[in-house]
Please model this.
Amino acid sequence: MQSQNISDIIEKYLKSILAESDEIEIKRSEMAQLFNCVPSQINYVINTRFNVQNGYIVRSKRGGGGYIRIEKINFVDDYDVFDELISIVGESISFKDAFQMIKSLFQAEVLTRSEANLILAIIDKKTLNLADCKLENMLRARIMKNILNRLKYDD
Amino acid sequence: MQSQNISDIIEKYLKSILAESDEIEIKRSEMAQLFNCVPSQINYVINTRFNVQNGYIVRSKRGGGGYIRIEKINFVDDYDVFDELISIVGESISFKDAFQMIKSLFQAEVLTRSEANLILAIIDKKTLNLADCKLENMLRARIMKNILNRLKYDD
DNA sequence: TTTAAATTTGACTAATATTGACTATTGATA
DNA sequence: TATCAATAGTCAATATTAGTCAAATTTAAA
Model:
């Protein structure tokens, strides 16, 4: 029915493990073998689904005994995370990236569902819809930074 | 037995499936093949018959394993109130007027305090920060209307 | 009948995923 | 120290989807 592509399947697999522990460690080549794909596909999945916007931190090591470690961001304890997100937003952000960020803030229970929904409605492409896409992304960045700053000082 | 154009037939087909489940996932090219039409006709049907006003939300993904997902939405009891507010907002609204509207939505317990504050922070002059005041009011109107549209349904 | 709106079509565009050749890093060993 | 083996990373080409837009056509309304 859904997720016919390998990337989604790998993502689900990793997230199902992460649902039980806050951190996992994998071997890229083993993963590739398990899912019958090329090793670089694992990088693709990690880069597109386990980045900071998505609420994950990834560390890795090459060479013998190498690994890829994926860790869930702890928004409650890790206070600087908001600053990091603010710097990721920078002066300009696409809806897609902002969407990921809001989604992970909801999943981490920093935002309620209805707050997240409201924000998404506001930063939607159709809402901002400025003739100039560049200007749109800049405006979205201002809105996102405003939100992140509020969250930072809220708790 | 009226107007049996392809668009209507596709619409009926999709709605007959949606009558049994709240959500369906299709592949554009498969649909096009099934109904012997060009793929973009599927977009036409979705844009004209499955928009938010009609009670549907559509999400999609391109690339390998791509899909189009159509989901029915649940309107809140008195959702037509929001339509009235939307027409009041019109094409342009000042911060002062928007503030009043958000305030009354809070007093009516449609919005929580933090939701109201969040919205006010976003539609503030400083956040929108557009040189042109006219443009600012128009943008604020679009944001307000999208918020109101979002409040018409839940989840 | 004339005009406006809705539908159909297809060329072009954009986003996402897959693959593999090449590169970089690390630790172990000669 | 130099080299090698065993990892992971990068990047660009290709494949696989869906989206956009406007011209052409058909249908409905005035």
Remarks:
- The interface with chain B takes residues 1-5, 7-8, 113-115, 117-119, 121-122, 124, 126-130, 139, 142-143, 146-147, 150 of chain A (CB under 8 Å).
- Residues 133-154 of chain A form the longest helix (22 residues).
- The beta strands of chain A are 23-26, 56-61, 67-72.
- Helices of chain A lie at 6-18, 28-34, 39-49, 81-89, 95-107, 113-123, 125-128, 133-154.
